Amino acid sequence: MKKVLHAFLGLVNVVYQIIDRPMDFTTIKNQMEAKxxxxxxxxxxxxxxxxxxxxxxxxxxxEEEKREAEETEAQTNIHLAxxxxxxxxxxxxxxxxxxxxxxxxxxxxKTLYDGQLTQM
Length: 120
Known about the structure:
Blueprint: H1 2-18, H2 25-44, H3 50-119
Helix pairs in contact: 1-3, 2-3
C-alpha cells in the first residue's frame, strides 16, 4: 500500500512538472465563453472601430492575466503536492518508529516475564 501511495504521489509531482496549466472542464468552458465574447465583439465591429480595437486589447490582457494566474496556480499545486508527500512520509516514518518501539517494549517485557518464570 505504501509503495502504491508513494508511486501515485510521485506521478502527481511529474504531472505538475509536465503540464503547465492543468484545468478541469468547468474552467475550460468558462474561459472559452469569455474568449468567445471578445471574439464576437471583434467580429461584429469593424477592425478600425474603437470597440474592436479596445476589445482586442482586452482579449490580449485577459489571456495574459489568465496565463499568469495559471502559472501561479500550477506552482502552488506543485508545492502543495510536495508538502502532502512530505507529510505522508513523516507520518509513515512516525508509525514505523512507534511500531518498532512497541514491539521492542513488548519483547523486553516478555523476556523479563519469561525470566521470572524460569527462576520459579
